[in-house]
């Protein structure tokens, strides 16, 4: 039986991540994608292309265990991004790379990533996956969810247009998403959960396990800053909580599992412990369906509202 999502034409993940090697440590993007209404190229694509470039300079017996990156400027999809990889340290167990991404002579992104020779006999522990998570097949695709929300005649026209835009983006994306739930949690604040996976079309039968981590890096930037905006109760409709700006400042991933498959569903659990001064931080955990913790993530983003509207709303509350 054909998966309904594969019936739509979408960007191939292999195309999204691919880079051209210009020299030993110099790479150039081939394809860039700007989400509708976004300020620049999708951040997950920049992370994954930078990581793909760095991985090409590392011996195969080293496995990526962490990356930390900063987004400095928005990138245009009309000009290729150049990735320069530099060896920071080469040790017996760990080796570190830095990646600087530039466009039109301007530095737009920097990343440090560290690779380790795996030590499987060392002790391990993990935070368990929440029980009773509904299986992905029991949940509608996110584009279907947006379609249903868009036909609600009671919503604001601007919100309807927004849902229609999101639905179109989801159909074109190489990532399949199914929204599970969101709500308050005593320990983690506001928690949101999704099933996500990479659409298989166009992927070769055999590719190195290191490519799985590049795909997960791409996947990991979906909805992540949104965890902080949802905790703040930000909206797309006019009012004191209308979000006027949102962009990613930095992103980190820590891998604790080297054997996973992004073309099978993974559980993405997101929360936000704090937001202030126009910034919000999101925390994430990605699990396999078996309950293995694959990665721990953090992201900080810019989240702004109109301060004049906020002040006016507070003034109104004070008079009540």
TrEMBL record:
Q: Which GO terms describe its molecular function?
A: fatty acyl-CoA hydrolase activity
- From the UniProt annotation, give the residues forming the signal peptide: none
Output this protein's name. Answer: Acyl-CoA thioesterase II
UniProt superkingdom: Eukaryota
Record flagged with keyword Oxidoreductase: no
Q: Which InterPro entries match?
A: ACOT8-like_C (IPR049450), Acyl-CoA_hotdog (IPR042171), Acyl_CoA_thio (IPR003703), HotDog_dom_sf (IPR029069), TesB_ACOT8-like_N (IPR049449)
Query: Which species does the entry assign this protein to?
Result: Sphaerobolus stellatus (strain SS14)
Keyword Zinc tagged: no
- Protein family membership: Belongs to the C/M/P thioester hydrolase family.
**Occurrences of domain Acyl-CoA thioesterase-like C-terminal (ranges):** 173-302
For this record, the Gene Ontology CC terms, alphabetical, are: peroxisomal matrix
What are the UniProt keywords, alphabetically? Hydrolase
All copies of the Acyl-CoA thioesterase-like N-terminal HotDog domain together span: 33-116
**CDD domains linked:** Thioesterase_II_repeat1 (cd03444), Thioesterase_II_repeat2 (cd03445)
Q: Choose any GO biological process term that the UniProt entry carries and state it.
A: acyl-CoA metabolic process
């Amino acid at each position: 039986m054909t998966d309904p999502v594969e019936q739509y034409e979408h960007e191939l993940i292999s195309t999204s991540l691919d880079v051209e090697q210009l020299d030993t440590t110099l790479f150039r993007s081939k394809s860039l994608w700007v989400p509708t209404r976004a300020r620049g190229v999708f951040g997950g694509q920049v992370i994954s292309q930078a990581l793909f470039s760095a991985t090409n300079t590392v011996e195969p017996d080293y496995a990526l265990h962490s990356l930390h990156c900063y987004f400095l400027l928005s990138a245009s999809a009309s000009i290729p991004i150049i990735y320069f990889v530099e060896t920071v340290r080469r040790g017996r167990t760990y080796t570190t790379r830095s990646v600087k991404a530039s466009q039109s002579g301007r530095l737009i992104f920097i990343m440090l990533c560290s690779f380790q020779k795996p030590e499987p006999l060392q002790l391990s522990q993990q935070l368990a996956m929440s029980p009773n998570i509904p299986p992905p097949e029991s949940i509608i695709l996110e584009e279907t969810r947006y379609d249903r929300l868009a036909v609600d005649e009671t919503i604001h026209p601007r919100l309807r247009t927004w849902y229609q835009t999101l639905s179109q983006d989801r159909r074109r994306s190489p990532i399949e998403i199914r929204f599970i739930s969101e709500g308050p949690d005593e320990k983690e604040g506001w928690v949101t959960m999704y099933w996500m996976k990479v659409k298989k079309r166009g992927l070769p039968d055999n590719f190195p396990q290191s490519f799985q981590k590049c795909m997960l890096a791409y996947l990991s930037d979906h909805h992540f800053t949104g965890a902080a905006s949802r905790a703040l109760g930000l909206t797309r409709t006019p009012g004191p909580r209308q979000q006027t700006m949102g962009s990613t400042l930095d992103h980190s991933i820590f891998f604790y599992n080297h054997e996973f498959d992004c073309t099978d569903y993974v559980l993405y659990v997101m929360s936000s412990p704090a937001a202030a001064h126009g910034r919000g931080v999101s925390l994430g955990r990605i699990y396999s369906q078996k309950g293995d913790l694959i990665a721990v993530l953090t992201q900080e983003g810019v989240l702004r509202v109109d301060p004049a509207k906020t002040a006016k709303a507070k003034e109104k509350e004070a008079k009540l």
